[in-house]
Amino acid sequence: MIRPYTPTDNEFLLELLRCNTPAFFAPSEEQDFVEYLAHHAQFYFVVEEAGKILGSGGFNWFDDGRIARISWDIIHPDFQGKGIGKELTLFRLNEIRKNPAVRLIVVRTTQLVFPFYQKLGFSLEKTEKDFWAEGFDLYQLKLEISAHSGIKQ
User: Fold this and answer.
1) pLDDT of 66-92, one tens digit each?
2) How large is the greatest C-alpha to C-alpha distance in the chain, in angstroms?
3) Is 94 within 8 Å of 151 (Cβ atoms)?
4) Taking the domains of the chain in order of start, what are their residue ranges?
5) How far is CA 1 from the centre of its chain?
């Protein structure tokens, strides 16, 4: 089940982040995540099964809704590779597409995860070494949306 995030999820989401640190996130990113949840999680979702949070991810609007940015995708290590991340991403892409003004979807991730987004049709736009933290490079990808374009399933 995918549902909207609530602040009561914070403890579980921080534990989810910690389960993925340092494999996918630098320890220094935890404070950024706390800040995001407190002030920027307007469209953030959790994947829950039998009362347990298995993953989370969100998006934010920029440029008067013409640009959406996928943000803070985290899947519990025990459930990675089982389609949960894809399901959550497709859910968000469909939510984003409900806005007729959207023309571009951006995701900023690392060298560790960018192939996942490429499989969903995103193209690599730029990279920057050690952007997030030492050893965690920025890989920015984009997906251009037109009134008639589809999203890869």
Assistant:
1) 999 999 999 999 999 999 999 999 999
2) 41
3) yes
4) 2-144
5) 17
- What b/e string do you get for 70-105 counting C-beta neighbours within 10 Å, with b at 16 or more? bbbbbbbeeebeeebbbebbeebbeebeeeeebbeb
- For domain 2-144, the CATH class is alpha beta
What is the C-alpha separation between 139 and 1, in angstroms, rounded? 29
CA 137 to chain centroid: 16
Number of other CB atoms surrounding residue 54 within 10 Å:
21
Residue 147 has a pLDDT of: 53
DSSP 1-31: -EEE--GGGHHHHHHHHHHTTTTTS-TTHHH
